Hints:
Layout lengths: L8 H4 L5 E2 L5 H5 L1 E2 H6 L14 H15 L2 H5 L1 E2 H5 L4 H4 L12 H15 L6 H8 L4 H13 L3 H6 L12 E2 L10 H12 L16 H4 L3
Parallel strand pairs: 1-2, 3-4
Helix pairs in contact: 4-8, 8-9, 8-10
Amino acid sequence: MGKQLRIPEELARGFTMMVEGGDTPAAKIAIPTELTRLSGIPIASEGSFQLDPVLHECIRLFNANYQGCEYCLNARAAGAVQAGLDEALVSKLTRFESSDLPEYIKAALRIANAVSSGPTTLTKAMWDGARRFFSEQEVVDIVLLSVHTTGSKVTITLGLDPGKENSSRIFYPSEEVYGHSPALKRAVEEMERRGLAVRPSADRTYAVDVKDSRAK
């Protein structure tokens, strides 16, 4: 439960960031697990967005910082970390325009920034800039993912952010929190066949400090 709860405790009791079913008030506030799976978190599966995992995580973390969600800001998706995401890259996201991030990431973040700050600020130049690097469907997926990853606005507004102490680690796609959809199961099996880690183990540790995740 959040540290600065703005709603009656009985409405927030049992709240988690994501939920699979349930008709309690807390379940209605949370992000549906199936929506999270379809958006490609923590792994692209059938019918989900098919974006590069590092780009995907950059968009998610950019929005986490923009919304001020400590829980989201300190979590890391295993697929993205194994694909090369590191904290040096993460530290550049909030000031991406003046950074040395790859141009394709900058192009995507311009769209994410416009979605967060006001969709009418999205210009033709931004759209055309993204099309230099991405297919038409990928650009649409960047927009949709940018919308989905502003979902923490509800959590923050109601004072329900569980905080970084509940998320400062790698999240693996086989974990209970992501549900049990058949499509996710197949995607996890394929990821494992490619030699990628799909579940936590004692020899894998990962923690970040929210102060280190924000660009100065």
